[in-house]
Amino acid sequence: MTYHPKSDFMAVMMERGFLADCTDYQALDDALSNGVVPAYIGYDATAASLHVGHLMNIMVLRWLQKCGHKPITLMGGGTTKVGDPSFRSDERPLLGPEQIQANIDGMGQVFAKYLSYGDGATDAIMLNNAEWLDQLNYLDFLRDIGRHFSVNRMLAFESVKSRLDREQSLSFLEFNYMILQAYDFLELNRRYGCVLQMGGSDQWGNIINGIDLTRRVLDNEIFGLTTPLLTTSDGRKMGKSQGGAIWLNGDMLAPYGFWQFWRNTTDADTAKFLKIFTELPVAECDRLGALQGADINAAKIILANEVTALLHGRAAAEAAEATAREVFEQGGVGDDLPTLDLTAAELGDGMSIAQIIVRAGLAASGKEAKRLIADNGARLNDEPLTDAGLMVTADMLAAPIKLSAGKKRHALVRLA
Known about the structure:
With about 425 residues, the chain is an alpha/beta fold. It has three domains: about 10-225, Rossmann fold, CATH 3.40.50; about 255-330, Tyrosyl-Transfer RNA Synthetase (Orthogonal Bundle); about 340-415, Structural Genomics Hypothetical 15.5 Kd Protein In mrcA-pckA Intergenic Region, Chain A (Roll). It contains 19 helices and 15 strands. It has helices spanning about 10-15, 25-35, 50-65, 95-115, 130-135, 140-145, 150-155, 160-165, 170-175, 175-190, 205-220, 255-265, 270-275, 280-290, 295-310, 315-330, 345, 355-360, 365-375, and strands spanning about 20, 40-45, 70-75, 125-130, 195-200, 225, 240, 245, 340, 350, 380, 385, 390, 400-405, 410-415. A hairpin with a 2-residue loop joins strand 11 and strand 12 (about 385). Helix 12 (about 255-265) runs antiparallel to helix 15 (about 295-310) and helix 15 runs antiparallel to helix 16. The longest helix is centred in the first third of the chain and has 18 residues, at about 95-115. The N and C termini lie far apart (about 60 Å). Its main location: cytoplasm.
């Protein structure tokens, strides 16, 4: 694409690799050049924390605000009760109102790190679609909104079609999700003047639905913009590791673990991740990403520091780097390593080392921990750990022990 944007925001989106598709580049660019554009991204409350897979779009909202526009973080207090079926093979577990609210509270902690909320023209606002979805009258909704949707067209959307082609069940509840998300855009436009919905490219169909509905009901011009679905150079979905999701809340993943995830970036992904997840100038991202051999490790440390500083603060990033240097370069223990505290009562007559490896977050299951030991991938105080049946007692924790999985993942275990 050879389009040359006029607005700062569209330039950032294209230059840093955020842009997958847009409903009307020229008209959106004009709107962004002529005044404050309110734009939203929706987040269903399916977990107590956002994870690294959400971070790209959080950075999009941050850049939107830095470029003089108004971000809206829409929490799915209503849509979470239905569950987005997009590209899933099964129905999401249904959550109760209390769990949904607890998840919204947990997720909200992260947005405050990246966005400035308030009452000003470009201050971010956080909304909950339960505000309007919980009040819907079913018959009125069918008559006023449902009549604008063609079932034939809904069945043709790839997110639905792929599920049906595999002969996997799609409930009527889930089938309604795209209508509710479209209605969100209509209400945000009507109530808050929102003219742009953004999201991952898997949300393209849902975004188009909202644009069509708003034009039909309100005759307003609104836009959609998507970001690419991010995978690592080896084809894995961004945000997954051996231990599971890379959570953004510090109480679910310590800053050191978050820092280490970025430090372990592959050489081929370094420049791309610097552009997307940091605010370093693009030219500097390209320079760092082009480093070769051992020099690329310095770029990965800069990546880890910059991303961690945005989320957890500069002091946490520096502490994580210092710990990594002590652990890797000096053979030490490191004060900032993820720590598992065990009580004497928990240990009783002894707890298996495999169970402790799982508790410390170095393996997802006991089976995986035993395989790690069998494959010579586990170490205890930097010595090879070969006995999967080792029982750890309180006496053995008179001094903290250091557990390692491979060369890059470590944890402390100590007596509480």
